[in-house]
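step=encode ok
step=design start
structure_in=
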């Protein structure tokens, strides 16, 4: 009889233990599902946050590119302004030196004897022209060329059937260019064909 009592008790314990285990397994499963749900929500949140940060980074990068382009344009503008300023300063100085060049040319042309003094003047003239040429100064071609109103200024016209119309026959004052800019026009005499009207100053 004692055997039967113990056996019943053992069966009840097994049944009770099985229920307890089932309860614990159910609770564990619920916890796992809750954790899985939390993990999924967190992943979605992190993904959204990453997308926002990526968009923000792209926006900053775009702004940085615009700023860099603006800065490059600013540097180019400053360089152009500086170059223009230097060119204007050079032009002003050279214009002041042109009469000195004219005087030296007259002195060389009027020299009658080949003395050392005259040779010295010729050397000074040559050195001065060389220095100014390095700065971009160059004389305007005149005699034998066709008249160009942008480079030449007509002082006199003469009838000359031996040359084509508007050929420069004589230069009264040399013209100069600084780079591609005319800083002094050549004062010239040009030819006109007999049938055309002659204008003289």
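sequence_out=
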């Amino acid at each position: 009889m004692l055997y039967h009592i113990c056996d019943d008790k053992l069966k009840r314990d097994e049944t009770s233990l099985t229920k307890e285990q089932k309860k614990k397994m159910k609770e564990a499963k619920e916890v796992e599902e809750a954790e899985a749900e939390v993990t999924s929500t967190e992943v979605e949140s992190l993904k959204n946050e990453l997308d926002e940060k990526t968009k923000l980074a792209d926006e900053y990068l775009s702004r940085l590119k615009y700023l860099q382009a603006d800065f490059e344009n600013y540097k180019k503008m400053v360089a152009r302004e500086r170059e223009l300023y230097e060119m204007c300063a050079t032009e002003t100085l050279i214009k002041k030196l042109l009469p000195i060049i004219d005087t030296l040319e007259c002195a060389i042309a009027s020299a009658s004897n080949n003395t050392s003094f005259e040779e010295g003047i010729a050397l000074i003239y040559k050195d001065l022209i060389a220095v100014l040429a390095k700065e971009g100064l160059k004389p305007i071609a005149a005699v034998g060329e066709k008249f160009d109103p942008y480079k030449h200024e007509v002082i006199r016209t003469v009838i000359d059937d031996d040359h084509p119309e508007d050929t420069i026959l004589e230069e009264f004052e040399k013209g100069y260019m600084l780079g591609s800019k005319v800083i002094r026009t050549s004062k010239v005499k040009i030819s006109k064909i007999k049938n055309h009207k002659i204008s003289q100053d």
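step=design ok
step=annotate ok -> The beta strands are 137-139, 152-159, 168-173, 176-178, 181-184, 186-192.
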